[in-house]
Amino acid sequence: MKIYTRTGDQGNTFVIGGQVRKDDLQVEAYGSLDELNSFVGQAAAAACADGESWNDELKKQLVRIQHELFDCGSDLAYAKPNELGYKVHGELTGNLEAWIDSWEQELPPLERFVLPGGTTLAAVLHVCRTVCRRAERRVVSLAAETDINKEVLRYVNRLSDYFFTAARLANVKAGVPETEYERSGKVFR
């Protein structure tokens, strides 16, 4: 099988059950999730390179999230609402919330905005967070135009919170203090 099909040479691509332009909101939404998935892979690689024992659990979670991002993209790739059922459901969002809640117990209270950075792992997780937010905006735009699996939107929204929490924890575990935004008041209570 050849990797190229030439079907996109005119600016169109196939979705499940149809064909759309490559700049269609639908393609923008699941394409942004695909981009995010690549950065999550980079974060998983950084977790392996870091050598910290807690990173084993983080890496497992990140690989699981990569599979779930493919599920999100699949759910958004239907030309018409999926009558056979979607892959993304509330349990996946609940898992993210449980991981966040568990990790927050190990973090100092957050009072001010923090700058992305610290360790290499934390920096990559912050990139995941911001790319996730962009993907979320694309999913919101798509949802305003057509019926989608609303759980994808909930999942992606919570996922950015997961990346933020994981980035903070990466710095805490490495003993690297976060840099607070200098002109920030106490915005979190």
From TrEMBL:
It is an enzyme of class 2 (transferase). Residues 3-169 form the Cobalamin adenosyltransferase-like domain. Pathway: Cofactor biosynthesis; adenosylcobalamin biosynthesis; adenosylcobalamin from cob(II)yrinate a,c-diamide: step 2/7. Keywords: ATP-binding, Cobalamin biosynthesis, Nucleotide-binding, Transferase. Its EC number is 2.5.1.17. Coiled coil: none annotated. The keyword Transmembrane does not apply. It comes from the Bacteria. It catalyses: 2 cob(II)alamin + reduced [electron-transfer flavoprotein] + 2 ATP = 2 adenosylcob(III)alamin + 2 triphosphate + oxidized [electron-transfer flavoprotein] + 3 H(+); 2 cob(II)yrinate a,c diamide + reduced [electron-transfer flavoprotein] + 2 ATP = 2 adenosylcob(III)yrinate a,c-diamide + 2 triphosphate + oxidized [electron-transfer flavoprotein] + 3 H(+). The keyword Transferase applies. InterPro entries: CblAdoTrfase-like (IPR016030), CblAdoTrfase-like_sf (IPR036451), PduO-typ (IPR029499). Belongs to the Cob(I)alamin adenosyltransferase family. PANTHER family: CORRINOID ADENOSYLTRANSFERASE, CORRINOID ADENOSYLTRANSFERASE MMAB. This is Corrinoid adenosyltransferase. It comes from Paenibacillus physcomitrellae.
